[in-house]
Amino acid sequence: MKNLLKAPVLWYKSGSPWIWLNGGAVTLCMLMVVGLLGLIAVRGFGHFWPANIVLTSATDTSGNKHVIMGEVVRSEIIAAAIARDNGYKIPAEQELLTRYLIKLGNKDITSRDFMWVLENGMDAWQYPKDAVTVERREWGNFYGYLISINENGKPVLTKDAPNFWSEVDARMKRALKLHDEIAHIEKVRIGGINNSIQELKLDHRRLELKGVTGAKMAEAEAGFAERKAALEAEYEVVKKERDVILHEATRDQFVAKTADGKEVILPLDHLVRVTHPNDMSVIAKTGDYVKRFWEFMTTEPREANTEGGIFPAIFGTFVMVIVMAIIVTPFGVLAAIYLREYARDGWFLRVIRISVYNLAGVPSIVYGVFGLGFFVYYLGGNIDQLFFAESLPSPTFGTPGLFWASLTLALLTLPIVIVSTEEGLSRIPSTIRQGSLALGATKSETLWKVVVPLATPAMMTGLILAVARAAGEVAPLMLVGVVKLAPALPVDGNYPYLHLDQKIMHLGFHIYDVGFQSPNVEAARPLVYATSLMLVMLIVILNVTAIKIRNNLREKYRSASD
Description:
60% of the residues lie in helices and 14% in strands. It has helices at 2-13, 16-46, 80-85, 107-110, 164-209, 214-249, 282-298, 311-342, 347-359, 364-387, 402-426, 430-438, 443-472, 477-480, 507-516, 521-561, and strands spanning 54-59, 65-79, 96-103, 114-118, 131-136, 141-151, 154-158, 252-257, 263-267, 271-275, 301-302, 307-308. Strands 5, 6, 7, 8, 9 and 10 form a six-stranded antiparallel beta sheet that branches. It has a four-stranded antiparallel beta sheet with strand order 1-2-3-4. Strands 11-12 form a two-stranded antiparallel sheet. Strand 8 and strand 9 form a beta hairpin.
């Protein structure tokens, strides 16, 4: 009996309870993370599946029937008292009822995109096979029926024709191709001409600031005028080419009809896609799903960021993180090497280390305020005065942009890199240093050819943590370079090709903007999940790449040390 009483005490003193407790806590955390990622994945990936179109009718508070067509988004059970308070006539014995959120589309006609519909008074659901979903560049989706195809305002084909749907697909492909050609002309060719004209103005302003006058100024102005005339002539040629394509793009229109019989003209140059999901097989829906997901990844946002893609945000996040890593890595590594290998031990060194550790705990918004005040206004303002005076009062670097956002994040993540590198240097055995010195190597040679290569896995660990931290930050970026909409990428074909002064979009800020600043909450909800999924995937890709490099370096120097 005495031994039985001692067993729990001995088990407790052995430390096993703490091991099981830590194991349970880690398991619980992993389950929570997996569950969260699963929720984001289901909601995010599910957004692109072409949903069926429902046709039914519902009763309003006055008892009138209204025809409803759209996509069923979700349903929920509510207390009948809530419906009664809103004016619906619900039997007294009924306590609970179901209501459905239906995406009505046709916002330009009904002025509403979503509607809650009670099951009471709702007719049976129908799924008309000829119903179509028309995705538009403005006003959201249109749900209804296509009646005919018009060309220059005149009908050329009706829905009864045997080749109607093939003609719909052919004309949509033509319209999308023309739209891409117009976008290319406006962004690349006209954008390049405008950039060249702006450079001419800046060159002229530079000469004025240098005080150039007389014959030299007259000669320069003559050259500017000649180059400007050539650019304007080139612009007129490109503009005429674009106008011809614009005229071609406006040739075709669809005549459509809503569920309640209203006719609508849908110009094809305003459309993105026409599908009839009720008549699509699973294979066809899968193909459409892949196409929608790819467009989400590679196109620009529209409709206040509630429609379209997120490519500018993905690209902006990626470029910002890469620039941040290029800045923070050398500074963090050199600082750690100095603190570990060269600085004398004493109170001053301890103060520096404590300061580095404290910097890691400073709220990120403080870094944003510091970046705005010091980097943007002070450094950027002085850079503009010294190097870009011809652009003033319009700021070049004296305004938030990509470089200042990257530099602010580099400052934010600098303590992480320093601490990780220091830990890696401290784990290098002193016998390796002593052996190198005994063989005749200098301290500098020992450091850079022996110690630092062996510590590179720890440096990569610090970089991995820095990338993960930087990619998910939002608060400081709102102050130093990230904006709601910036469809122009920071990398293009105009010199200097990488525009560090340009504002960018960021996935984290895009999630915040769509989720909390959108005028259409229901339309934005699935995009929040989809964008969150893309942010997680981007961080995972960057981290996996860095981990792969770190593991290769670890194996390389482990075999070398053996």
